[in-house]
Amino acid sequence: MNENRDGLSFLPLGGTGEIGMNLNLYCLDGVWLAVDCGIGFSGNDTPEAEVLMPDPAFIAERAKALCGLVITHAHEDHLGAVAHLWPQMRCPIYATPFAAAVLRRKLGEAHLVGQVKIHTIRGNEHFNVGPYDLQFISVTHSVPEAKSLIIRTPQGVVVHTGDFKLDTDPVVGPVSDLEAFRAIGDEGVLAMVCDSTNVLKSGISGTEGSVRESMAQLIQSLHGRIAVTCFASNVARVDSIARAARLAGREVMIVGRSLRNLETAARECGYLQDIPPFLTEQEANSVEDDRLLMIITGSQGEPRSALSRIASDTHPNIALGEGDTVIYSSRMIPGNEQAVMAVQDNLTRRGVTVLTDRDHLVHVSGHATGDDLRTLYGLVRPKYAIPTHGEWRHLTAHAALARDIGIEAVLLEDGDILNLSPGSVEVVDTAPTGRLALDGGRLLPMTGGVLAARRKMLFNGIVLASFAVDDEGFVIGEPKISAPGLLEADDPETARVTEEFADAIDAIPDELRREDELFRDTAKTALRRALGRKLQKRPLVDVHLLRV
């Protein structure tokens, strides 16, 4: 494995060629620096898992050479995996006050807060991590205190943009510091590792201020109960919704744990200062329908979210119906379309009016458009463009845009080790990558036996056979067959399979009956044969043998 002990290299372990799971590594003279450590959410291609994260095995093996982890901003896809993966990395963390406040809550839930050293970086000051001379630059994004990271090394300057947009009216926080980017460009920049999410959209970015105005007008025009769903981390949007509610004479209730955590972190860091405390679900019971607005989690159709439970009428305290309105002040993350549409369909079935950004200006993206990228490239003027944070169609469009303005682009996928200096800027090696699924409190490899079995059960079902034998290995009584999700107990096919399986195990030679493991394996083969081809599926098959 190329450790580039006398130079600078870049390695994405997650977030390049996909949306979410951002985990980026730089290596300077054999010393590693991590930038962001986030989760991704399951899509239609991974129904067996809900929360995913990059496998950190590569850097975990080099943890002694890892000098730190820098968090660019407080979105889940950039810091949501820290509490799960830090025990394998065990390095100090550097973050802004808001990201640090969000992170401490997550670490507290994981009982790690006393073990992790978090350095809070305020403003755009320089800070050193190992041999890296680092600096934050303020950028606008859909979360407070988003930063681009400037990495100064003897081998050259790298601009790691993180997620950003050029918003002239961000409502909360400063505009992107273009003069700072111009000054970095004047220094000379070797490479810009850059957000690609919204590159396919032309024109300049929509402003958060325009959403605030539109939202205020829309909410004042509505009657009945209003629920607005948005990303919990979007403090500017929560602020705008709360102000719009106040103008319309409505009180605000927030629903969902992530929103409660967001409110606490935001107020801790000086945001939402002139917004009255939000109502709890119990306090809102006494508020008239026309005077209540709810901000609710679940904009991506997450099955256990508050909005999904309200839509399926399983929420313990909240029900929506005829005359009520749900506003989606968010975009659908690719892969979540089916889940979001199912929730919207359930709401509509209950008589709820569903409004999205197709109906009104209730959302703008937090990511740079193609024109925003052109502007930033014009200021930074890097020698090389390295598109990250996007699916392959975003990365290739980003590379084409960079080449169009005369900047050499390098396309990478997760696991590619890119030599930046000295010598040719090219992929020189690959690192092992993978995905881990959060399953309850466990981290499981997506390619491992547990999730592979779950995937097989999901699509092909499972057949369990159990039977008892005596000391000599002869069957006692009748075997039992269970095929949940595949065959009903009273299905004639179940009786046929049971009968054929009984006949097959009776015919197993004596020498295969003496050892339980050998007997079980032979019985499994017999069960597969008994299932035959009639089901046109290959279910997971297991046999329980009890020797009495």
Describe this protein's structure.
- By secondary structure, the chain is α/β, with parallel strands linked by helices.
- Helix 4 (97-109) crosses helix 8 (257-268) and helix 5 packs across helix 11.
- The protein is globular, with a radius of gyration of 28 Å.
- The two termini are 54 Å apart.
Ranges with pLDDT <50 over ≥5 residues? none
Largest sheet: 8 strands, mixed
Apparent shape: globular
What is the average per-residue confidence, as pLDDT, rounded to a whole number? 91
Count of alpha and pi helical runs = 15
- Give the radius of gyration: 28 Å
Q: How many strand elements?
A: 27
Structural class: alpha/beta
Biggest sheet: strand arrangement: 8-7-6-3-2-1-21-22
Distance between the termini: 54 Å
Strand content: 15-25%
Helix content: 25-40%
Domain Metallo-beta-lactamase: 20-215
GO molecular function, one term: metal ion binding
Protein name: Ribonuclease J
Keywords: Exonuclease, Hydrolase, Metal-binding, Nuclease, RNA-binding, Zinc
Q: In brief, what are we looking at here?
A:
It comes from Brytella acorum. The protein has 548 residues and is of the alpha/beta class.
Question: How would the blueprint of this fold be written?
Answer:
Blueprint: E1 8-14, E2 23-28, E3 31-35, E4 40-41, E5 51-54, H1 57-60, E6 66-70, H2 76-79, H3 82-89, E7 93-95, H4 97-109, E8 118-120, E9 126-129, E10 132-138, E11 147-153, E12 156-160, H5 178-187, E13 191-195, H6 208-220, E14 226-229, H7 235-247, E15 251-255, H8 257-268, E16 292-296, H9 306-311, E17 325-328, H10 337-349, E18 353-355, H11 370-380, E19 384-388, H12 392-404, E20 408-409, E21 416-421, E22 426-430, E23 435-439, E24 442-445, H13 449-460, E25 462-469, E26 475-482, H14 492-506, H15 516-531, E27 540-547
Parallel strand pairs: 3-6, 6-7, 7-8, 12-13, 13-19, 14-16, 14-17, 15-16, 17-18, 19-20, 25-27
Antiparallel strand pairs: 1-2, 1-21, 2-3, 4-5, 5-23, 9-10, 10-11, 11-12, 21-22, 23-24, 25-26
InterPro entries: Metallo-B-lactamas (IPR001279), RibonucZ/Hydroxyglut_hydro (IPR036866), RMMBL (IPR011108), RNase_J_2 (IPR042173), RNase_J_b_CASP (IPR055132), RNase_J_C (IPR041636), RNase_J_CS (IPR001587)
Domain Metallo-beta-lactamase: 20-215
Protein name: Ribonuclease J
